[in-house]
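Sequence in, structure out. Go.
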Amino acid sequence: MTGTAPAAPAPLVELADVHKRYNVGRPNEAEVLRGIDLAVGPGEFLALIGPSGSGKSTLLNILGLLEPLTSGRYRLQGEDVSTLDDAALTLRRRATLGFVFQFHHLLPAFTAEENVTLPALLRDGRVGAADRARARELLAAVGLAQAMHKRPGELSGGMQQRVAIARALVHDPPLVLADEPTGNLDRASSDEAFALLRRMHGERRTSFVIVTHDPRLAARCDRVVELVDGRVVRDEAGSGPAG
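Output:
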């Protein structure tokens, strides 16, 4: 007697026929995304690639609830977030998403620990002992246990990006969105930051969507989605961490 195969987990992200237009109804109206269908499952490590102007950053902004889509549907953890108001979107963003950018956007007057606790400060208006302990735990995990009281100006570019990665993970978001997270680093630091993202993914099974222009790094993701002129033209498996 054969058993029933377990059901596949529900997608974390579901985009259906998503379009994004700017300057709608004006002579200079521009369509940047043209019918995007995309599902991202729990624990995926996905690279988003494509030429400049293909819509990658716009798509990442929509996934991050930073700008609205023009038409279509976006479900996040099963909830249609396309119709939420700004206050609800802010709460959803803080609870669900982590962000890593090419330029780490650390506050120069804050220590590494204080930068990592910033999401708690924005969420609760205060930083508690548990928040500080979590920040110290993550800074140790990214190899910065001895630098947690240093300010960004005292850290190298690679170290600053590790602080930004710790900050993105401090509230254990199910989804981290990374926009060219290694684009401002030299090759050695870039490889180090990417290896750290992969390690954090392996330990926490957080889903990652990473925009990158680096084909070496894209190939080492588990899945590669390519955009051209606002459309998905390729969606295939990558070679994974050892690639």
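Check: DSSP finds eight helices and ten strands in the chain. Strands lie at 13-22, 30-40, 45-49, 71-76, 79-80, 97-101, 175-179, 207-211, 223-228, 231-237.
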